[in-house]
C-alpha cells in the first residue's frame, strides 16, 4: 500500500508506517511511556528525514496523551495548577526551540543535532533503566530500598515567591516547575518527544510531588505542549507531514490496547529490562548511523 508523504517528498509503505505506530503504541501500553522517544529514531531508520520525523511524531504523542489525561482526571490524579505552570514554561520553551530549530536548519546542522540528542538521551535513560531492572531481577522482585520521605531538592527550597500546590502536597516557588517545563518544551520542539521519560522522574525526585498526581500532571503538560509544538512546526518549519502523522496515530491507538493487556500479565521488572534493551539497541543503531558515511554526502534543500 504505497502512500505519498508530501512534506517528506517520498513514497512509503502505508501499512509499515501504521505498523510502526502500532509498535510504539504497544510500548506505550506496556511501559507507560508515550513512545515518542522511539518513534522518531525508528522513522529515521526507515528513511524519513529527521526534521519531518521529529515534527510529525509530536502529533502522535498529542493523540496518545488525550485518553490518559481524561482517565487520570476522573480519579483526581491531575494537579491543574502545577500543570498550568509547566505548560506555560513548556510553551515558552517550544518558542525558543522553534528558533533553535530554524537556526540549525539554516546552517544545515539540524539532522545531526537531532541524532546526537537522541544518542545521548537514549543512552543515558537506557543505561539507568537497565541498571534498575537488573537490580530488581537479582533481588527476585523484592523491595530492597528503604522507603524514602518525599522531599523536593534543596535548591528548589531556596527559590523565592512560593505557591501552594495542594494536590501535589507542595509549597514551592513556581519558578521550578516553570523551568522544568521550559526544558521539556525545547526538547519537544527539537526531538518530537513528549518528554514524559524526563518529566516524571523530575517531578518525583526534584520537585517532590505526590506520586498519585505525577503521571496525570505530566500527561496534562505533554498534551498541551505537543499541541503547541505541532502548530509551531506547521507555521514555522513546515516540517509536519499530516499523512505520516495520521498513519502513526492510527497505529498507536490500536497498539496501545494490546500493550495494556500484555502489561497486566507480565512481570514489571522483566518489562523494564526489555524496554531498556530496546532503548539501548536504538541508541547503538543511531551511533552507527552517525559514524558510517551516508550514501549521499550532500543534500539540496529549498530556501
TrEMBL record:
Its membrane topology: Multi-pass membrane protein
Provenance organism: Altererythrobacter rubellus
Entry annotated with the keyword Ribosomal protein: no
PANTHER family cross-referenced by the UniProt entry: MEMBRANE TRANSPORTER PROTEIN MJ0441-RELATED, MEMBRANE TRANSPORTER PROTEIN YTNM-RELATED
Name assigned to this protein: Probable membrane transporter protein
Annotated transmembrane regions: 12-38, 44-71, 83-104, 110-130, 170-198, 204-227, 239-258, 270-292
Family affiliation: Belongs to the 4-toluene sulfonate uptake permease (TSUP) (TC 2.A.102) family.
Keyword Protein biosynthesis in record: no
Record keywords: Cell membrane, Membrane, Transmembrane, Transmembrane helix
Record's subcellular location: Cell membrane; Membrane
This protein's GO CC annotations: plasma membrane
Amino acid at each position: 500500500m504505497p502512500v505519498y508523504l508530501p512534506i517528506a517528498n517520498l513514497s512509503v509503505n502505508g501499512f509499515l508506517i501504521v505498523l510502526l505506530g502500532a509498535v510504539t503504541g504497544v510500548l506505550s501500553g506496556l511501559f507507560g511511556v508515550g513512545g515518542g522517544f522511539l518513534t522518531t529514531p525508528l522513522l529515521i531508520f526507515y528513511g524519513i528525514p529527521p526534521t519531518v520525523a521529529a515534527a510529525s511524531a509530536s502529533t502522535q504523542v498529542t493523540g496518545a496523551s488525550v485518553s490518559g489525561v481524561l482517565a487520570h482526571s476522573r480519579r483526581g490524579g491531575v494537579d491543574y495548577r502545577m500543570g498550568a505552570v509547566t505548560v506555560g514554561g513548556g510553551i515558552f520553551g517550544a518558542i525558543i526551540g522553534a528558533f533553535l530549530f530554524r537556526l540549525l536548519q539554516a546552517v544545515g546542522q539540524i539532522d545531526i543535532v537531532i541524532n546526537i540528542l537522541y544518542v545521548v538521551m537514549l543512552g543515558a535513560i537506557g543505561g539507568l533503566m537497565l541498571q534498575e531492572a537488573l537490580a530488581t531481577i537479582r533481588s527476585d522482585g523484592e523491595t530492597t530500598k528503604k522507603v524514602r520521605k518525599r522531599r523536593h531538592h534543596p535548591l528548589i527550597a531556596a527559590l523565592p515567591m512560593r505557591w501552594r500546590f495542594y494536590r501535589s502536597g507542595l509549597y514551592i516557588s513556581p519558578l521550578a516547575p516553570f523551568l522544568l517545563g521550559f526544558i521539556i518544551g525545547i526538547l519537544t520542539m527539537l526531538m518530537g518527544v513528549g518528554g514524559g521519560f524526563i518529566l516524571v522522574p523530575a517531578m518525583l525526585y526534584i520537585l517532590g510531588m505526590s506520586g498519585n498526581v505525577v503521571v496525570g500532571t505530566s500527561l496534562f503538560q505533554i498534551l498541551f505542549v505537543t499541541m503547541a509544538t505541532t502548530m509551531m512546526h506547521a507555521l514555522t518549519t513546515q516540517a509536519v507531514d499530516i499523512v505520516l502523522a495520521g498513519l502513526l496515530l492510527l497505529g498507536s491507538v490500536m497498539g496501545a490496547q494490546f500493550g495494556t493487556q500484555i502489561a497486566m500479565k507480565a512481570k514489571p521488572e522483566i518489562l523494564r529490562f526489555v524496554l531498556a534493551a530496546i532503548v539501548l539497541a536504538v541508541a547503538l543503531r543511531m551511533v552507527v548511523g552517525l559514524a558510517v558515511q551516508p550514501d549521499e554526502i550532500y543534500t539540496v534543500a529549498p530556501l
